[in-house]
Amino acid sequence: LCPQVHSLQELRRSASLATKVFVQRDYSDGTTCQFQTKFPPELESRIERQLFEETVKTLNGFYAEAEKIGGSSYLEGCLACATAYFIFLCMETHYEKVLKKISKYIQDQNEKIYAPRGLLLTDPLERGMRVIEISIYEDRCSSGSSSSGSSSSSSGGGGGGAGGRGP
Amino acid sequence: MPAASGKRFKPSKYVPVSAAAIFLVGATTLFFAFTCPGLSLYVSPIIPAYNAVVFLFVLANFSMATFMDPGIFPRAEEDEDKEDDFRAPLYKTVEIKGIQVRMKWCATCRFYRPPRCSHCSVCDNCVEVRSCRGLRSPPRGREPREHPLTVPHPRQEFDHHCPWVNNCIGRRNYRYFFLFLLSLTTHIMGVFGFGLLYVLYQVEELSGVRMAVTMVVMCVAGLFFIPVAGLTGFHVVLVARGRTTNEQVTGKFRGGVNPFTNGCCKNVSRVLCSSPAPRYLGRPKAEQTVLVRPPFLRPEVSDGQITVKIMDNGIQTELKRTKSKGSLEVTESQSADAEPPPPPKPDLSRYTGLRTHLTLATTEDSSLLGKDSPPTPTMYKYRPGYSSSSSSAALPHSTSAKLSRVNSLKEPNSICDSGHKPSYRSEPSLEPESFRSPTFGKSFHFDPLSSGSRSSSLKSAQGTGFEMGHLQSIRSEGTTSTSYKSLVNQTRNGSLSYDSLLTPSDSPDFESVQAGPEPEPPVGYTSPFLSARIAQQRETDLHGRFASAASPKHAAPREPSPVRYDNLSRHIVASIQEREKLLQQPPAPGREEDAGLADSGIQSTPGSSNAPRTSSSSDDSKRSPLGKNPLTRPALPRFGKPEPPPALRVRSLGSPDQPAAPHLGKSVSYSSQKTASQAGGPETEEVALQPLLAPKDEVQMRTAYSKSNGQPKSLGSAPPGPGPVPLSSPTRGGVKKVSGVGGTTYEISV
């Protein structure tokens, strides 16, 4: 546990980036965008396996939906052709819509599940859809240097307080 | 300097696109100006309208093909490849629909190029004119990283670089390029046809300006029609086949199967009807609004997961037990002898020897350990498979996860180093610990902490299932769960020989127990160093906990131990065999098993093949060189027979290298198997602890290169090959296999 720290320092208790894990693409089904659901060993102690797999599976589902060739995408293509692609200035494509959903989902997951565990997901789009980058943070407060600093400050504060109360 | 040169204006590059634009727009304009009025007047007004629509279509597609980002990948960040940088193989194979496809490492972009991705040599993005394709050596300094577009970027589904549009054709703009070709062909045909109509039917006077212009336009159209139509036809075939120009021209799938095709109709629809893919560059950077603040939640750790892997403890205990039984004095003495520097006390030496081996195994340690005489290899560094790859190394237990977590805090190497030191120093303290509480246990884990529980379990088993117990421990100790399992599975001859050693009743139990942890790849397989260090830190704390945890754990499927089964088993088996022999003169089958086990566990070191029984001197000789080897040359394949093949020791490898090699190969490959999905091979590091075995015969320092799978260059495109060769190459990120006392082999990730 972190020793009792000065109030200001308490507020500044922060996490530092320890390492990053990269979940690679799963190419077993061609070049469609899928990510491996294999659980990285570095996350073993940080998050439940099931949560992670669920996240990746949901993302895979989103990407499959984005790349789906169906009626809507066909119509979109025809409309684009008919308007000489000017429609792209006004309307966003189906893929972009799904990407927005994905981005929201990732943020949601980060807020609810990953950040409380000291992890952070990065949208694969920022990495060219090659990897899902998971940043692992460590509690800086638990490291020796910070704790020693905080303990000295707390002891100083305690002494001052005792002196004041004396007389 | 590089930045400046990157932006040099090269006019020659714009010549084709300018010419194409001029011809297209100019000819069409002339057509509309001179031919269409007459046609619309005398034939039909639909003609110009139709031509206008087609021309508009051509222009739109031309613009999109020219100006659209073909699907440029952003450069990989520094963090992503820090493991790959120095040891990454040039190629990483990945299986796509059953077909192996190679992904090439791009030194400039610092990632393995996804399938169908390539650099464009002509685009302005490249800093240098020369191609980045496969370029591994352009000094980083030459590519300014600050300007994403001034450095080479790979394009996804790279088709080709089209000079006529002065742009790469890739995933995003291929459809526009294709439609441009189609529409241009249509447009050319229309212009030519209607011009011909105009001329042939002499809509207006023949010698007029209009006629002349029309004839010129027709000539231009006719001239361009042939190459354009040819190209169009070529691309129609490509789309139908689901190939890119790049693949077609380089003949990648000539005569072979294209893994990227989904059938003609699906290919066409994918090109034309799919939603346009997003661009990667130039996107607004998403603001990180989520704050990560401690305290952090941690997942629940079940008892079964807390087990720390202790390979040597069990063995040592076992040895002790055998000793106590009085039937395994030979083994004991052997183990004692096996230690490189003859220790004052056989037991301690045994442990120390193990430690030595253990520490030796780790790369970092090797240098460190070299100084110490009998380092007991209680912990070895395990470097969890990293990102990439493929790391399929899994930490089976939460504790190991904790250890790995600690690992993750620092660089794996550093962890090992730190791990080494403390573990090294603490060896003596650990020894008695482990010695005292030999928990052989189902969950044979490296952690000495669990030794307490193990000892209790061992003792309980003493009565009846001594053999079973220690055999079980041997099994569990063998290696990480998966590795062990694979050992069991693969080297049925060897590792499964333990079963034969066991009584029939035992075997099923053992098997069933084994089955439990087996499916899981070795998750939570942590660096031995960490476990050692943590173990010592929390020895007292955990003893009680483990003791309590051990019992439920034992009830549950045993976690595979990181200790390599075969090594451990070998010694133990050997000892058991000897005991049995003393009792009943059992035949050599046990030995066979032993050997098999040993083989699998032990790398090709000849030592491994030695049966514990063999003269202790051989052990010593084996061990010392072995002990030294890992220390001095961690990178070297431990397998490699550093020392002269021992005379005989138990077959263990009695059957000469040959059985050993396959075993080794198997053991090595199983790690790869586990991560078989990864082309490179498994990242699992098989940590085989053989602390006990160190003093015993072979110090089989095996560098498991299982870890090498994607990382070590040595693996290259080939999966880790079985046999001695792969063993030798492991260093690359690999795992060093160390054989410790008691025949356990553990692999220390380098």
From TrEMBL, chain A:
Chief localization: Golgi
Residue ranges with Low complexity bias: 142-154
Region annotated Disordered, chain positions: 140-167
Any single GO CC term annotated in Swiss-Prot or TrEMBL for this entry: Golgi membrane
Family: Belongs to the ERF4 family.
Protein name: GOG7B protein
GO biological process, one term: protein targeting to membrane
Alphabetical UniProt keywords: Membrane
Subcellular location(s) of the protein: Golgi apparatus membrane
Domain Golgin subfamily A member 7/ERF4 per the UniProt entry, residue ranges: 21-133
Bilayer topology term: Lipid-anchor
Biased composition range(s): Gly residues: 155-167
UniProtKB/TrEMBL annotation, chain B:
Name by which UniProt lists this protein: Palmitoyltransferase
Protein keywords: Acyltransferase, Cell membrane, Lipoprotein, Membrane, Methylation, Palmitate, Phosphoprotein, Transferase, Transmembrane, Transmembrane helix
EC number of the protein: 2.3.1.225
Pfam families associated with the record: DHHC
Biased composition regions of type Polar residues, renumbered to the chain: 495-506, 668-678
Gene name as annotated: Zdhhc5
Family to which this protein belongs: Belongs to the DHHC palmitoyltransferase family. ERF2/ZDHHC9 subfamily.
Residue spans of biased composition, Low complexity class: 387-401, 608-618
GO molecular function, one term: protein-cysteine S-palmitoyltransferase activity
Gene Ontology terms: cellular component: plasma membrane
Record's subcellular location: Cell membrane
